[in-house]
Design a protein that fits this description.
155 residues, six-stranded antiparallel beta sheet, 21% helix, globular
Length: 155
């Protein structure tokens, strides 16, 4: 696939754009990968890998009217996965060569290695939960700052 260009957003913008902000822990399995076939010849047209992350809700920081219960197990898809699937198809099926601009949060917590993290989510058109933008996670150490921003921005 073509090289993606990242457009980094601030924590403030991430809070504004998120409809669900949670403190979570990883579940087992941490991820599942669903190959989505895009052509008959999988060597020539490799499948797109739809990645789902699995979390258990520890604390609800902002739910935007959505009913979420602590301890719920959530499946969260990568940000804009439908767009990424279409880019994958365009590259392999149509020979499209473009470098899309992808919104991303520049978090020092870019891995999911910490026991508890803050995740920033939204619901896509199919009512699936997905990360708001790429790398929509933050360290639990920023919990108070996130709560302050929620208070200021989500009136």
């Amino acid at each position: 696939m073509s090289q993606m260009v990242l457009d980094y957003i601030s924590l403030e913008q991430l809070v504004k754009d998120s409809s669900l902000i949670l403190v979570v822990e990883r579940c087992t399995p941490e991820t599942t990968v669903l190959p989505i076939k895009i052509g008959e010849d999988e060597e020539k047209y490799p499948p797109y890998h739809k990645i789902s992350y699995h979390f258990s809700v520890i604390e609800i920081l902002y739910a935007g009217g959505r009913t979420v219960v602590d301890g719920n197990r959530l499946e969260v898809l990568e940000a804009n996965w439908h767009f990424l699937l279409n880019l994958h198809k365009g590259y392999y099926l149509d020979g499209m060569r473009r470098s899309p601009l992808i919104s991303s949060y520049d978090s020092p917590a870019t891995t999911l290695e910490n026991a508890r993290i803050i995740v920033f989510l939204r619901q896509n058109a199919e009512k699936e939960l997905e990360f708001t933008v790429a790398n929509s996670i933050e360290s639990i150490l920023k919990r108070d700052e996130v709560l302050r921003l929620i208070k200021e921005l989500k009136k």
